[in-house]
Amino acid sequence: MAIDKLPVGISTSTPLTNNKYKQSVATDAAPSNTPNTVAPKQDSVTLTPQAQRLSQVQHSLANTPAPDNSARLEALKKAINEGSYQVDSDRLAANISRFEQDLEGL
Fold first, then answer.
1. For residue 51, what pLDDT band results from cuts at 50, 70 and 90?
2. From CA 59, how far away is CA 45, in angstroms rounded?
3. Which residue from 1, 49, 80, 104 lies 20 to 30 Å from 88 (Cα-Cα)?
4. What is the rounded distance in angstroms from the CA atom of residue 105 to the CA atom of residue 50?
């Protein structure tokens, strides 16, 4: 439902002080030292060492400029289109294995 098309009987000019829910207003005043005052609980978040490391990796990757591989990419495209590109299966397997080991190290 669009907010500008409210059902009949509901007005957008109803003051908030007339609703049935209590509202509290936060103030910057110093807390009183009355015995009934309860200190508010504070939430906290603790990151695991793996999450901290991942955050560092993301930050370093975001600040690293992308390499210019356009010449190599064009040469690969040309070799594939001509049918002369050969896959080195041993090199491919070694790279996949190294990638898996790097993932385990994170």
1. very high
2. 20
3. 104
4. 10
Q: What is the DSSP string of 24-88?
A: -----SPPP--TT--PPP-------HHHHHHHHHHHHHHTSPPP--HHHHHHHHHHHHHT-----
Handedness of CA 88, 93, 94, 98 (dihedral sign): positive
Distance CA 12, CA 8 (A): 11
pTM for this model (two decimals): 0.32
**Structure-block tokens of residue 55:** 């955050």
Q: What is the pLDDT of residue 88?
A: 94
- pLDDT value at position 75? 94
Sequence-distant (≥ 6) Cβ neighbours of residue 79 within 8 angstroms: 85
Q: What's the token pair of residue 18?
A: 């007339």
Q: Residue range 56-72: average pLDDT?
A: 91
